[in-house]
Amino acid sequence: MRLFVSEGAPGCLPVLAAAGRARGRAELLISTVGPEDCVVPFLTRPKVPVLQLDSGNYLFSTSAICRYFFLLSGWEQDDLTNQWLEWEATELQPALSAALYYLVVQGKKGEDVLGSVRRALTHIDHSLSRQNCPFLAGETESLADIVLWGALYPLLQDPAYLPEELSALHSWFQTLSTQEPCQRAAETVLKQQGVLALRPYLQKQPQPSPAEGRAVTNEPEEEELATLSEEEIAMAVTAWEKGLESLPPLRPQQNPVLPVTGERNVLITSALPYVNNVPHLGNIIGCVLSADVFARYSRLRQWNTLYLCGTDEYGTATETKAMEEGLTPQEICDKYHIIHADIYRWFNISFDTFGRTTTAQQTKITQDIFQRLLTRGFVLQDTVEQLRCEHCARFLADRFVEGVCPFCGYEEARGDQCDKCGKLINAVELKKPQCKVCRSCPVVQSTHHLFLDLPKLEKRLEEWLGRTLPGSDWTPNARFITRSWLRDGLKPRCITRDLKWGTPVPLEGFEDKVFYVWFDATIGYLSITANYTDQWERWWKNPEQVDLYQFMAKDNVPFHGIVFPCSALGAEDNYTLVSHLIATEYLNYEDGKFSKSRGVGVFGDMAQDTGIPADIWRFYLLYIRPEGQDSAFSWTDLLLKNNSELLNNLGNFINRAGMFVSKFFGGYVPEMVLNPDDQRLLAHVTLELQHYHQLLEKVRIRDALRSILTISRHGNQYIQVNEPWKRIKGSEADRQRAGTVTGLAVNIAALLSVMLQPYMPTVSATIQAQLQLPPPACSILLTNFLCTLPAGHQIGTVSPLFQKLENDQIESLRQRFGGGQLEETFDLKAKTSPKPTVIETVTTAGPQQIQALMDEVTKQVCSLSPVGDWTS
Amino acid sequence: MAAAAELSLLEKSLGLSKGNKYSAQGERQIPVLQTNNGPSLTGLTTIAAHLVKQANKEYLLGSTAEEKAIVQQWLEYRVTQIDGHSSKNDIHTLLKDLNSYLEDKVYLTGYNFTLADILLYYGLHRFIVDLTVQEKEKYLNVSRWFCHIQHYPGIRQHLSSVVFIKNRLYTNSH
Description:
Helices cover 48% and strands 10% of the residues of chain A. Chain A has 872 residues and is an alpha/beta fold. A three-stranded antiparallel β-sheet of chain B has the order 1-2-3, covered by helices on one side. The interface between A and B is medium-sized, with 34 and 35 residues.
């Protein structure tokens, strides 16, 4: 068969991707024709791509060609796939060709382009998030994904045209874009020129007519959400009426928490923060806070849950920090461990245990894993040439060396990478190397090191990933990072360092070396559990019964997705490996980066001094959680979200519901006689509650928070429409109606208090105290909306939950923490010179410079070690 | 013909006894089928293919990979081209193309009657009834195919039968 393509014809993307996916590529002859050549004899207008079959028949429809490739591989299409393809042809294509034409041929930008496709994009996003599957037609990828991805790629590969709020679309798009057949198709068609590669084809096309009678209406998508069947309504009403009776008994609190056979056992870890720095908001949302929401949710579901974390204390950074502060490394760790623990306590993080890595258990378990790897032949020994600064009397980590790039001659290349040409550098290859701390010239010394033989473990790792990934909730970025590491092939990795502050290496000849943090830091989870309970192996050597969720920022994925699993698989001791690796993107600060040395950004210990309660911080950080893409902390936005979502929406609703009960009904929940409108509201709330569960089960924390706000919006509307404050003064029937509305509203408030518990535990407890919600209802969340405050129930004293944030208050905080104007000028500087300015002219470093360097080394507090330091 | 009416015709021609109810969505009145055991289905060709499977007549969707792809290609053509364009000019280009395509074919896939024939027949009916005798002769292959489908058992139902004259009147039209 022969495929006719034309330079820049958008249809070639899905076709090539489908051919690659279905492995139809081999038998394919490809001919390139001009954009105006008529290939198909019976069609008047030119059309590409076209597939000429061996029978002589032509396929001139892009989806039909893609479908043909899939059918050849034996993959049939179901109704849902067909529906997406029909939608693509009739709705998406007209909108998309208009957008591409405006963008590529007419050079329009922004909303002029996005306007025509926004509705279609929203439709995809809503469908994905509503059915809660990673792919359009379900759990697995289908023809629909390839065809729609191919159609959308030219536009969406430019992040400007992938609206931030469409997070489900975003992660779907990212998942597909990282697949090999898709990547190849994109490279072939767009030739790395982006959307402009389509120009030769598009400029020969007629200008798309501004959609006659289509897509002009701004019919809200919510209409679609709102179709409820009679059965759904009836079921919601039945569940509601059962009330408190349907709650199961509370599971007793155990101490220590241990896995129970036959129950769902959820083990949750948050990446271990580096001890020698104060975590900033980005670190907090990336690890401990995200994991905390999930842990609290897991407990609300009555799953047997253990949530652990601790400080990562070994390594170069700690040694240097100790030198700087004139303390011993142990003293530094003790000091900062307390700082960390205090910050997390203030943020209300519900660890079952918060430990540390400098313990005897850490040594014991790390050495045991090492011995097992050694006897099984997974450890190599090799000589390494390393730079040593005689003046500072130590071997230099890559980031502590600077010199002339051996490739491009750039004068300020770092020990691991050149900022100018971007090439990776082996520190010893640097010309004219300099110690960044004292500026003297280091010497090359050879030393023995141990390496983990990752290539030998690669096959086991792939087998394990093959079993684990399908159907799991690994975030797309975690899948992508892991896959790309495997694609490049694993290399042996050095696991020892010439330091004192670390886990000793139990091998002759290695007495003055310790394990490198990236080998032993992830073992910290095990040792922290071992310090919590002597039965730690019931969690960590129990893969059949334990579901392990690990939370981290994306730079930490290689340690958790590759290195630790390799160590554990090689040790052959039946370790529990991660089932769901949940990685966030990065949080920026007011469009810049958090920087301790520049005093920019909010750090954990300072959040307390702002006067803003911990729950408000939690809410806002979770609301902007970098889920699927980077996001930014902004003071103005914090004010806005607090005043609009918390104060006006959520707080207002809950407060009014409670106030009506106390003011109009003497504090007793009135009788409720549900009419069809009330029943429909019940069903809507139930639907949203179920959506919340679906999202949280998939650890879509930010999206699930939206469900809470949606329910409260429904509630506000319900009160507004029914006006109980007027009806209470009316006839007997009116009074009864006011009672029903108040009763239903206060029950919704009760439900919200439970749904809110993972996000804002203190506010949740306050609401529950105000409403006197019975204890089991406070701690269990079912999938149905129950009447937990029956008629006659007496509530407590109701008072407002949130405070308004004022502009001047926020403005002064912004100034105190940097950002805004100041930050912009900083950023400009940073852009013109890629090096931190502090080290440009100095010959010997003062404490401030050392601090700046330290920050660079430990840039991501949640990372066990900067990824760049891995090569040695 | 509204999509819902067309789908009812299709149900009957497939021998499905229990009629479904359809709602219509948006300005273009896209049909929606609420199925009992799953989410609703939207779109004419999607629902049509679903009905064919429900009637256990999968052969109407094509038997080989090639035939299946061709059926779907013409179904897409039906909803994007035939339903999408209504100007006189467009229709004539469309009929010209179809005429040329059908020159060596009995049905749209070649030799087998499929859902593509049914839906193109329903979709083109409103245009074909308005053609003049001369035009019908000009699009001879379309006329032959159309006449064949309208006589296929159970397809036409209450739609008007279009008359085609067997003898050529305009001998110099080609």
